[in-house]
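Here is a protein:
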Amino acid sequence: MSQAPTTPTLAPIPRHVAIIMDGNGRWAQKRRRPRVIGHRAGARAVNRTIDFCLERGVAALTLFAFSSENWGRPSEEVDALMKLFLNALDREVDELHRRGVRVRFIGERERFGAALVSRMQLAEQRTADNRAMTLSIAASYGGRQDIARAARELAADVAAGRLLPEQIDEAMLSSRVALADLPPPDLFIRTGGDTRISNFLLWQLAYTELWFTDVLWPEFDAAVLQQALDAYAARERRFGLTSAQIAALATETSTP
């Protein structure tokens, strides 16, 4: 699924990177500009991030674009975000398709207007067979909402007699949450200085490495992203095992 890195590296590359893109509004306020200007600047940071991940061979990138809670923001800001979203889809999908990026959306898309839902569907259909990278955009998404939807699906299967309650385990629930066909995120990044995951991919982030930065999203660039990857490469991911067990497994894997 992933393409080969364009530059040699000894550091492990995360298969899946998930990002909360925080700080657009504060970036604009610092410059005494409307918040929508910050969102426009943030769109350029998205393009830089996609470029970087494609170059490094990251197989999947998931971006938190609009949370289920963001509907509570001032209506003028929500309207401006929807227009930006529409414009970005019209402008960027052709280029993403040319570069082999598969685009998908997770979240309650029925809350969006018909024009935006149509653009989402067209983007997904056009790029469905691409394999260079999967770009998942979380829009009107919440982690609790995601788990509740999966639980409703399983409950419906039990009620219909297709499933017994005792058959429900972690693997089955994992198969019903968003991004079930992708590896779980290896690296989570949040910009803007807050150190919480804010209802993003709650099930999927169970063993993800977390990395936070004070850099505001419009200022996020390849240098900052490389810092995150360097920090990730320096960590030991044990998944409940001991360091000695991890070392033994690495030896077994590397032995011909």
In short: The helical segments are 24-30, 35-56, 75-98, 114-127, 143-159, 170-174, 222-233, 243-254. The first strand starts at residue 16 and ends at 20. The chain has a mean pLDDT of 90.
